[in-house]
Amino acid sequence: MFEIETAPPTNRSAPIPKSELDRVLTAQLIVAWAGEGGEEKRLGWWRSDLISEFGGEDLFQRLLPATWQWAVLQGAREAARREDAAQRQRDYNPDRILSLFNLGFELDERIDERLQELKQLRRLPQELLPSLAQVIGSAWNQTQFEEWLAGHGSTETEPTSIGRRLRGESPSSLELLVKRFVAGLAPLGDSYPLPHYRKE
User: Fold this and answer.
1) Does 13 map to a domain?
2) 122: left (phi > 0), else alpha (psi -120 to 50), else beta?
3) Are 21 and 117 in contact (CB under 8 A)?
């Protein structure tokens, strides 16, 4: 008899630094906030009014006094995620579409876990994700939001039946990928443009 030496199981995915997850989460939360309609008359890409004084904030302050700031952002992010998913479902192969709110199962799960981790710290979102404060202010300012988009560079897109397909290969860098998705939101329109890549 002889023994066959087997290699120890390895973790296929390298750990993603929390700072990178925070950048993705910040971008998602800012876009989710900007895409809301309702009282403040922001972009109106999804039907939610959570991040406003007399919308979701009033309700969540009473229900979740310790974490209501996180709850309204999380709710807006969920509204954005659902709109993103609805548009992807119109494609013949939606599982191959990568977008700001659909980065792949494992990565999406890690971002969700990071959001829960931040909420449990019981500190304000703008303290833990300082870049939020650069855009999410007391009042909607479309020019400021467009400047934030422009700060992510520019990218070439082509129209498709589900949104704007980003030209070229999908970057392997998570930071660059998210920058392209954010840049692909410009120019702003009446509906969510779904900047996306198609996985080959």
Assistant:
1) no
2) left
3) no
Closest by CA position to 48, among listed 84, 77, 6, 19:
77
CB of 195 within 8 A of CB of 163?
yes
DSSP letter for 184, please: T
Q: What are phi and psi of 102, to 5 degrees?
A: -145, 85
Domain assignment present for 3:
no
User: Nearest 5°: phi and psi at 131?
Assistant: -65, -20
Tell me the per-residue pLDDT of 21-69, one tens digit each, with 9 for 90 and over: 999 999 999 999 999 887 778 899 998 766 666 666 656 566 665 677 8
pTM of the full structure: 0.88
φ, ψ dihedrals at 93, nearest 5° = -140, 75
For residue 77 the two structure tokens come to: 């992010």
Question: By residue range, what is the domain housing residue 161?
Answer: 18-198
Give the whole-angstrom CA distance, residue 137 versus residue 70: 15
Domains in the chain: how many in total?
Answer: 1
Q: Is residue 12 part of a domain?
A: no
